[in-house]
Write a structure and sequence with these properties.
The complex is a heterodimer of chains A (172) and B (156).
Chain A lengths: L1 H30 L5 H5 L1 H14 L2 E9 L8 E10 L8 E5 L1 H11 L7 E8 L20 E13 L1 E10 L3
Antiparallel strand pairs in A: 1-2, 1-4, 2-6, 3-5, 5-6
Helix pairs in contact in A: 1-3, 1-4
Chain B lengths: L2 E7 L6 H12 L5 H8 L1 H9 L2 H4 L2 E4 L5 E7 L4 H6 L15 E6 L4 H8 L5 E5 L13 H4 L5 H5 L2
Parallel strand pairs in B: 1-3, 4-5
Antiparallel strand pairs in B: 2-3, 2-4
Helix pairs in contact in B: 1-2, 1-3
Classes of the chains: A alpha+beta (172), B alpha/beta (156).
Chain lengths: 172, 156
């Protein structure tokens, strides 16, 4: 019985964090003035990836990268990281929760992007992660010249927490 | 018109996409045209499920014949119990052509979702703050044209 509860707790935590992380990324996209069509059109692939890699313990960070297509070379203009801490609740029985205020704070602090900026979702996974259809290998854009601001844990569940950070150009 | 209601367990028991898949299981058999139409709006529906609009107001299915179907999603601590109490429908309302489906949506997302659904005839989105008005009788124009003649009221 205890095993079943534990399995359910872990499964539910994975589902809770995967779906709400995606919902939070969409909130950032909309709140930053970006077009939400792309994330909506990829919703099933993104959610399946997050859920699979959280369940396997390989997902390290889910990132929203915002870039300016009119620039060549390093065209990053903003970035948001949800970093997974698999030992956030050492006992593994943390409640399932979401803090929309943390997401709203980041949106407010970051401000808006020009409407013609594009974005993509990147999952940073540990080696050996399972393959999920629809995802392809890539590398992050350079964050040289940017400052990372960690704002705390935005989503929690089971033993896991998802900490949120955003990047701004240094001096902004 | 008779109405049949169902509750479907959502997050955290199922992902948003998994929840829509459970709803499509209720509404249409596999490998049918109706099922394919439902599957084509998976991403749109999953966004609305994630936002929990479908918990506040039901998805409404109007089949070509038979009772109207209302489906709510159950989220959070109540979702596990809801899963054990899920009941299938006596028939598949989207098995035959001619059905329509209305999705609830918050005002912040409704223009985006309405635009996305334009490519999917038979699906519509409605403002969840307006309650369920899908297919309800529209008040007649005569009723809207009533005016009070205050001059007449002052006549002896």
């Amino acid at each position: 019985m205890n095993t079943a509860v534990r399995v359910n707790t872990t499964t539910y935590a994975v589902t809770h964090i995967a779906t709400n992380m995606l919902g939070s990324i969409r909130a950032i996209i909309k709140g930053s003035g970006l077009n939400p069509d792309r994330i909506r059109d990829q919703w099933d692939v993104l959610e399946r990836g997050f859920a699979a890699w959280l369940a396997s313990g390989h997902l390290k960070t889910a990132t929203l990268e915002v870039y300016d297509t009119s620039k060549r070379g390093d065209n990053l203009v903003g970035r948001f990281d949800f970093t997974i801490d698999y030992g956030y609740y050492p006992g593994g029985d943390g409640d399932l929760w979401l803090d929309p205020d943390t997401v709203a704070f980041v949106i407010r602090k970051n401000g808006s992007f020009p409407a013609d900026c594009e974005y993509r979702i990147v999952a940073d996974c540990a080696p050996g992660h399972p393959t999920v259809p629809g995802w392809a290998a890539t590398t992050y854009r350079s964050t040289a010249g940017f400052t990372r601001h960690a704002v705390g844990t935005a989503i929690g569940g089971g033993s896991m927490g998802a900490g949120l950070a955003y990047y701004t150009r240094s001096g902004k | 018109m008779s109405v049949v209601s169902r509750a479907v367990a959502a997050i955290p028991v199922r992902t948003s996409v998994g929840t829509w898949e459970a709803i499509t299981d209720l509404l249409a058999p596999a490998d049918t045209a109706g099922r394919r139409r439902l599957e084509e709006v998976t991403n749109i529906a999953a966004v609305l499920i994630t936002a929990e609009y479908t918990q506040q107001e039901p998805i409404v299915v109007m089949p070509s014949s038979g009772p109207r179907i209302r489906i709510r999603t159950v989220h959070g601590a109540d979702a596990e119990e809801a899963r054990t109490e899920e009941v299938s429908l006596a028939s598949s309302p989207c098995a035959e052509p001619g059905w329509t489906l209305s999705l609830p949506c918050g005002v912040d997302d409704i223009e985006e979702i309405r635009a996305a659904l334009r490519a999917h005839p038979g699906f519509e989105v409605r403002d969840l703050t307006e309650g369920i008005t899908v297919g309800e009788p529209v008040p007649s124009a005569v009723a809207e044209d009533w005016l009070i003649n205050y001059d007449e009221l002052e006549n002896p």
